[in-house]
């Protein structure tokens, strides 16, 4: 009886997990969510959010010299999304839904970035990548995604002279 309960509990845990990335996901159904937060002295001063399924892109920045709070729609092609997804699958990160934190102690700055595939639950990610190669891989993927967003016509119209990145 204990074995049956254990097996039932184990299977229920497996079923409740997200589909693994190596499962057969239709390329036409892949979507990407990006979320970035920027803190100075533990105060949120910047945030970006993008969902490729909805095209929703939000940017918020509040410092002593700037204030931006803008939401726009950015459309990426499914081919671009699939290219990011295919590179993401190849990353050597144990938990693919991972975030990256960087701290510069002398400035008390914290940047958190995360990228999710086929999930929009940004609160799901609690643990940050600590290995240098994990952070480098996340940076590569997020940079590729942000470059696609910044090169879109929608972004260029909304931010005609911006050349900054969080």
Total beta-strand segments = 7
Briefly note the structural class of the backbone.
Answer: alpha+beta
Output the number of helix runs.
4
Name the shape in a single word. Answer: globular
Q: How confident overall, as mean pLDDT? A: 75
| Radius of gyration, whole Å | 18 Å
Fraction of residues in helix? 25-40%
* Helix-strand sequence: HEEEEHEEEHH
Strand residue content: 25-35%
Largest sheet: 7 strands, mixed
Description:
The protein is α+β, with helices and mostly antiparallel strands and 166 residues long. It is 31% helix and 30% strand. The chain has four helices and seven strands; from the N terminus they run αββββαβββαα. It has helices at 2-16, 78-89, 132-150, 153-158; strands at 32-40, 43-51, 56-62, 67-73, 99-104, 109-117, 128-129. A seven-stranded mixed β-sheet has the order 4-3-2-1-6-5-7. α2 packs antiparallel against α3. The protein is globular and about 45 Å long. The termini are far apart.
List keywords for this structure.
166 residues, disordered N terminus, alpha+beta, 4 helices, seven-stranded mixed β-sheet, globular
Itemize the secondary structure elements and their pairings.
Blueprint: H1 2-16, E1 32-40, E2 43-51, E3 56-62, E4 67-73, H2 78-89, E5 99-104, E6 109-117, E7 128-129, H3 132-150, H4 153-158
Parallel strand pairs: 5-7
Antiparallel strand pairs: 1-2, 1-6, 2-3, 3-4, 5-6
């Amino acid at each position: 009886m204990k074995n049956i309960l254990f097996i039932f509990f184990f299977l229920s845990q497996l079923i409740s997990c997200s589909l693994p990335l190596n499962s057969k996901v239709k390329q036409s159904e892949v979507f990407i969510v990006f979320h970035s937060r920027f803190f100075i002295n533990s105060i949120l001063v910047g945030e970006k959010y993008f969902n490729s399924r909805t095209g929703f892109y939000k940017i918020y920045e509040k410092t002593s010299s700037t204030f931006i709070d803008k939401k726009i729609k950015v459309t990426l092609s499914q081919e671009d999304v699939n290219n990011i997804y295919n590179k993401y699958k190849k990353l050597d990160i144990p938990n693919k839904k991972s975030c990256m934190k960087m701290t510069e102690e002398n400035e008390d700055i914290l940047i958190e970035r995360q990228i999710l595939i086929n999930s929009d639950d940004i609160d799901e990610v609690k643990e940050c990548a600590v290995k240098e190669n994990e952070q480098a891989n996340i940076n590569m993927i997020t940079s590729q995604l942000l470059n696609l967003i910044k090169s879109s016509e929608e972004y260029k119209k909304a931010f005609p002279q911006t050349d900054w990145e969080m």
